[in-house]
Amino acid sequence: MTPEERAIAIWRFLADMAYNWHPPQVDGEPHDPVKFVNVYGYGYCDDFADNFAALAGAAGIPSRIWYLNGHVVPEAFYDGK
Question: What's the pTM value of the predicted model, to 2 decimals?
Fold first, then answer.
């Protein structure tokens, strides 16, 4: 897979495996990608963004998180952009 295809696959995996709902009230655990997908399966946009960034980093794709007026999104870097 190209880096772009890996980034899209990671996002689709998270989108397919989890849904947007109130995150569990356990400090830090919703941001652990293994527990997010295999234990909880739900969270807010920041939970998705943090877990995307962690999984992208593990796949060798640099990323960062943007905090936008009450919403949080991840950004992945590949092919020099």
Answer: 0.82
Contact yes or no for 66/43 (Cβ under 8 A): no
Contact present, 56 and 7 (Cβ < 8 Å): yes
Return d(Cα 47, Cα 45) in angstroms, integer: 5
The Cα 6–Cα 10 span in angstroms is 6
The runs of H, that is alpha helices, within 21-64 are 33-35, 45-58
Per-residue pLDDT 10s for the chain (81 aa) are: 899 999 999 999 988 887 777 777 766 666 778 888 888 888 888 888 998 999 999 999 999 999 999 899 999 998 888
